[in-house]
């Protein structure tokens, strides 16, 4: 699977190395809870095996999953710093990968004290102080009805650390909506995607929408015939909108465009000739001005782009 993804030019995240939730430990791991030396040895064998095997091939690891909510390994090993040492071990084995603190309810539920933004910030500060360098923030984002104002304020607060933020398991709980209304779920999904995409700290979005014949975990993008549901239509429309936009310049060749950070390929059609250029919208610079000279014409095309990422 890894080789296939690499052949297609797809980036890969490692999810996850260990999971701190006691309910999802294999029976043989639970049996080691009373044998801390053997448990630690088993964990290190797991880390050394999987991280070494894929070092340099994954862009990121979810290191100790959901450690804000659970503490299976810390409790069994009587070691409250276990997760920190695990991050350091992974960093040594794969120094180029981003190391995520990944948890739920920080973004989607303001009523969970275990994972409020301040609790996540405290954990990140602890890891930084211990010497973990390549940190990143993973927000699972399992929504029912989104509170967009709370979502925005949470991203603003977490963004003050300057770390990349990813929505790592985004979905809508369709089963919890009245009449399992997929159309309403699609509306919520578009609101969340636009809000996340528009925030300068958000660097990635992963959706938790795997299809299976027996039904979806919480939300799918297609039906059993692989035809789009309303949620799939939203994703396709936004991808199209965010990846390519056609703009007609004003009479004197000026274009104003609000779009995402990064490098953009530009094609300009003028007098039946197409000219190609590229430009880079950098974060933190406010409105940026680009001038594209058309070599076969005395005309100049001026481009004004906002560096504050937002839906186009």
From TrEMBL:
PROSITE patterns: GH10_2. GO terms for molecular function: endo-1,4-beta-xylanase activity. This is GH10 domain-containing protein. Keywords: Carbohydrate metabolism, Hydrolase, Polysaccharide degradation. SMART domains: Glyco_10. Belongs to the glycosyl hydrolase 10 (cellulase F) family. Residues 1-237 form the GH10 domain. It comes from the Eukaryota. It holds the Pfam family Glyco_hydro_10. Gene3D superfamilies: Glycosidases. GO terms for biological process: polysaccharide catabolic process. The keyword Transport does not apply. It comes from Ceratopteris richardii.
């Amino acid at each position: 699977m890894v080789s296939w993804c690499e052949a297609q030019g797809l980036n890969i995240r490692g999810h996850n190395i260990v999971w701190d939730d006691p309910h999802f430990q294999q029976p043989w791991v639970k049996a080691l809870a009373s044998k801390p030396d053997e448990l630690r040895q088993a964990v290190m064998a797991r880390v050394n095996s999987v991280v070494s095997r894929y070092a340099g091939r994954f862009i990121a690891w979810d290191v100790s999953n959901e450690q804000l909510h659970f503490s299976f390994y810390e409790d069994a090993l009587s070691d409250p710093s276990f997760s920190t040492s695990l991050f350091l071990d992974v960093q040594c084995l794969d120094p180029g990968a981003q190391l995520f603190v990944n948890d739920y309810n920080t973004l989607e539920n303001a009523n969970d004290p275990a994972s409020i933004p301040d609790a996540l910030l405290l954990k990140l500060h602890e890891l930084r102080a211990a010497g973990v360098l390549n940190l990143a923030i993973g927000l699972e984002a399992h929504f029912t009805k989104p509170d967009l104002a709370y979502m925005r304020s949470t991203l603003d607060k977490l963004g003050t650390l300057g770390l990349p933020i990813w929505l790592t398991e985004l979905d809508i709980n369709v089963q919890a909506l009245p009449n399992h209304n997929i159309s309403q779920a699609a509306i919520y999904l578009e609101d969340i995607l636009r809000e996340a995409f528009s925030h300068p700290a958000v660097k990635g979005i992963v959706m938790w929408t795997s299809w299976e014949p027996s039904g979806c975990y919480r939300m799918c993008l297609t039906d059993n015939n692989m035809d789009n549901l309303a949620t799939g239509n939203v994703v396709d429309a936004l991808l199209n909108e965010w990846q390519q936009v056609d703009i007609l310049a004003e009479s004197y060749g000026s274009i104003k465009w609000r779009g995402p950070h990064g490098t953009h390929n530009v094609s300009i059609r003028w007098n039946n000739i197409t000219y190609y250029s590229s430009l880079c919208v950098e974060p933190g610079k406010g409105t940026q001005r680009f001038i594209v000279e058309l070599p076969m014409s005395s005309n100049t095309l001026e481009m004004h782009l906002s560096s504050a990422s937002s839906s186009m």
